[in-house]
Automatic annotation (TrEMBL):
Signal peptide: none annotated. It comes from the Bacteria. GO terms for biological process: lipopolysaccharide core region biosynthetic process. Coiled coil: none annotated. SUPFAM superfamilies: UDP-Glycosyltransferase/glycogen phosphorylase. Pfam families: Glyco_transf_9 (PF01075). Keywords: Glycosyltransferase, Transferase. This is Glycosyltransferase family 9 protein. One of its GO terms (cellular component) is cytosol. PANTHER family: TETRAACYLDISACCHARIDE 4'-KINASE-RELATED (PTHR30160). The lineage of its organism: Bacteria, Pseudomonadati, Pseudomonadota, Alphaproteobacteria, Acetobacterales. One of its GO terms (molecular function) is ADP-heptose-lipopolysaccharide heptosyltransferase activity.
């Protein structure tokens, strides 16, 4: 059995889609999978069982990336095509069954929209696949237990909680619980620059370096007692890895993208959803949410 699964270009959405893949892996134990996603999310699927290949789709002018995808897939007979991008491409492939998500943004939790593509209510929870080598590197980086992961970056500045508040929150939680900080962020100079102030102010923090694979980051996060971070792909990855996860929300919509996992919470800046400035979120409110989350673990 062959399954074509077209996921998202964005990391957070791709993480949320892993629950569907986990469901299909269990439902069809003989199936082989081809994953389609954007470059940022590609590493998320590296350790996925029974994955034949990942097609990394990079946007091209005049939507020619869809033509390239069709050419890559047209010679295969697919038993199931799942398209979370809402494109027409699967209708021009040989496929026994199709499950295509309606395109466009709409209200409600993204995870629920994804579940309905396969008729699943409640939707399956996201997962994070790691290998033994990823877990070994994570253990070498974060020996023992008692770590708090801080993720002070995001894909746009409006979602970034001020760095000095991450520092203040971490100092209080470390004094109260003994948790040691590790700062996690993505690749590239922009992510590094957003994390630099937090790293500089916490000299005892482990700097993850921004060069780990997504599987290694997931393994690193799984070793942490708590994750605190902006609404981002890393927040969703931490929740999928099973780490108690606190998401910090300002102008992004918590009703759509709250963290999803076994032990998660969020705290929201005051104001109208979708327009609240993240600067309105106080350290005290974030601390109260973090303490409550720790009590639940």
């Amino acid at each position: 059995m062959r399954i074509l699964f077209i996921s998202s270009t964005r990391l957070g959405d791709a993480v949320l889609s892993t629950g569907l893949l986990d469901h299909l892996l269990r439902l069809y134990p003989q199936a082989r999978f081809t994953i389609v996603c954007g470059p940022v999310a590609a590493g998320l699927f590296d350790r996925m069982p029974r994955r034949d290949r990942t097609i990394v789709m990079t946007k091209r002018r005049w939507d020619l990336h869809w033509l390239a995808l069709w050419r890559s897939c047209v010679t295969t007979r697919w038993d199931l095509c799942v398209d979370l991008r809402g494109s027409a491409v699967t209708f021009f492939l040989w496929g026994r069954r199709r499950a295509v998500m309606r395109g466009g943004r709409r209200p409600g939790a993204r995870i629920a929209h994804l579940g309905r593509v396969l008729g699943l209510t409640p939707p399956p929870m996201p997962v994070a696949w790691t290998g033994a080598e990823d877990r070994a590197r994570a253990e070498a980086t974060l020996p023992g237990d008692g770590w708090i992961a801080l993720a002070p970056t995001a894909n746009w500045a409006g979602k970034v909680w001020p760095a000095e508040r991450f520092v203040a929150l971490c100092r209080v939680l470390s004094a109260e619980t003994g948790l040691r900080p590790v700062v996690v962020y993505g690749p590239g100079p922009l992510e590094r620059a957003m994390a630099a102030q937090v790293i500089a102010a916490l000299p005892d923090a482990v700097d993850s370096g921004g060069s780990l694979s997504l599987a290694e980051v997931a393994a690193l996060l799984a070793r942490c007692t708590l994750f605190v971070g902006n609404d981002s792909g890393l927040m969703h990855l931490a929740a999928a890895a099973g780490t108690p996860t606190l998401g910090l929300f300002g102008p992004s919509r918590v009703s759509e993208y709250a963290p999803v996992g076994r032990c998660v919470a969020h705290v929201i800046a005051p104001g109208a959803e979708g327009r609240a400035p993240i600067a309105g979120l106080t350290v005290e409110d974030a601390l109260a949410a973090a303490r409550d989350l720790l009590r639940r673990t």
